[in-house]
Amino acid sequence: MSEVASPEVSVVVLTRGDRTEALDAAVASATGQSGVRTEVLVVWNGCAPVDPDRAGVHADRTPPVRDIALAENLGIPEGRNVGARHASGVYLFFLDDDAEIVDADTFAQLAHRFERESDLGVIGTRIVDEHGHTAQRHVPRWGRASATSSGEVTSFLGGVVAIRRSAFESVGGYAGEFFYSMEETDLAWRLADAGWRIWYDADLQIRHPRTEPSRHPDAATRTARNRVWLVHRTLPLPLAVVYLVNWLVVTILRSPGDLRPTLNGYRAGWRSRIGPRRPIRWSTVVRLTRLGRPPVL
């Protein structure tokens, strides 16, 4: 009997189990990919994999879908890390549980590009809503850059992205302690410093319902705390100071009501700062700046 070939793309779908119809659609869009061997892993982050009425709902998929149940909510970055550790593909694709891959050859295109460009670590895709529009906050460039222009960038959106598995593992994956917020920037800067390139492909589209950004009650405090962790881990001291001052000014100008939570977050981040501290090289700073986003913004 011949051995089953290993998958080329491992799809990691992180879910809290609270939007089953959207999850089913996300899984279907992943299992429906053609031209490349695929596996799908659904990580149930602190919730039961299925209720009795839905048991086996993904069992007849080709390729099959594997459920990974976590006893507690580990947060977004660590949940994705768990999925990656269970994956066997050459490339990882992290997909939000309410997103759908538009074209059936998306993974084949991703794999082909990765194969052609050995220093390419990340390929970000374009989020489109039900009307085919892309919100400006989903464009991984500074300013009013066009969502329809592909090119090398300095960041990516964590729920619609392909990452070369060897690149992901070479820098240790996500920093799970972040729980949510700023973990993608932390990973992007570490990948860039390791010599990997990040590409935004506007032709590869992921459909995601248009929503306004929601805020958790502690969002401002947690984000500020994570910014301190981010700069402590990744930036040379002068840039770390400039980065935090810049964001303090932005907070005062945009959301003055968040000033106190932000200061509380800075204080908490400094007291609980996480490592390891490995500042990126100045050559990486120059590279990120040339790409349009210096690591102080």
Folded structure, characterized:
With 297 residues, this protein is an alpha/beta fold. The chain folds into 2 domains: 9-207, Spore Coat Polysaccharide Biosynthesis Protein SpsA, Chain A, CATH 3.90.550.10; 219-290, no CATH class. It has helices spanning 20-31, 76-86, 106-116, 165-170, 183-193, 219-234, 237-254, 259-271, 282-290, and strands at 9-15, 38-45, 65-70, 91-96, 100-101, 120-128, 151-153, 160-164, 197-207. The mean pLDDT is 93.
CATH top-level class of the largest domain: Alpha Beta
Helix/sheet category = alpha/beta
Question: What name goes with the CATH superfamily of the largest domain?
Answer: Spore Coat Polysaccharide Biosynthesis Protein SpsA, Chain A
Q: List low-confidence stretches.
A: none
What is the alpha-carbon Rg in Å? 19 Å
Helix residue percentage: 25-40%
Shape: globular
How many separate domains? 2
Number of helices: 9
